[in-house]
Write the structure tokens for this entry.
Amino acid sequence: KNYEEALRLYQHAVEYFLHAIKYEAHNDKAKESIRAKCMQYLDRAEKLKDYLRNKEKHGKKPVKENQRPRRDQRDNPEKKKLQEQLMGAVVVEKPNIRWNDVAGLEGAKEALKEAVILPIKFPHLFTGKRTPWRGILLFGPPGTGKSYLAKAVATEANNSTFFSVSSSDLMSKWLGESEKLVKNLFELARQHKPSIIFIDEVDSLCGSRNENESEAARRIKTEFLVQMQGVGNNNDGTLVLGATNIPWVLDSAIRRRFEKRIYIPLPEEAARAQMFRLHLGSTPHNLTEANIHELARKTEGYSGADISIIVRDSLMQPVRKVQSATHFKKSDMLRSLATTRPTVNADDLLKVKKFSEDFGQES
């Protein structure tokens, strides 16, 4: 029987119970129930500790602090299986997207360079109290380039291991396995540091805690809180990068752990003009700079994704006219602009701006 493992699990359970009493139990009856269970587990843990202590006295040498762990601890099959499952989240082939490919968003790019690129290139600058950011949240309306920025980070951070995870990577039908996956994700990131954990749509995993949510969702959030900034976890060299369209639903404790919260707004006129140029690329056209600036003025309130759709639709206009056409004109672009509506409405924009005023940082 593996008494050492049982003792470790009891101690881990007691930590969870204490965290629940402190942060999650809202009434006295729930606290009393958890406290009783906690005392029961503590009693069992003490008995196991006494048993193991007596066992060591009768002939077994104590394990030194720097001694290598036993084979069965090193080759824990369950841990190995979970880590292999998570290795699929590692981005092996880097996307070929550079900072220059991202139009505008200079503030966000500078913050990401500070957090990711500078500590790798100039580690001697980040000593003492000057430490790199360990949590960055990118928030803003949909289609503004949050995930695209993360791809640029994966490309530019050559020496970093980039983990791109979603809720499907961390959710499991087995009780207790989801939080183990979260723990193993952070352990993997620490083993392969410098590393970046990118969580797209982080609100799906870390929404506000309430009475109606499931026990599994609550435990995942608790594990995230512990791993991101918990006692005994050294996250040096590990950056958690989150992206969300609805930041106001994030749990306040998770929000605090994202030390830098960067608002990714809808593109300004200059950025929209640059987006038109980038999306047109090398496609033959007769648009002048004045035409591009006019289109940029007319697309006020459009996101980067909307502009991409306008350009793609206008590229199809000559094909619709005659399949042999090779150029498209300003009139094609204006026709597409008339039929394509922005995907971000004013109400969503007001909510995001309100969140930015309360908790965010202008980019």
Remarks:
- Residues 209 and 251 are 6 Å apart (CA to CA).
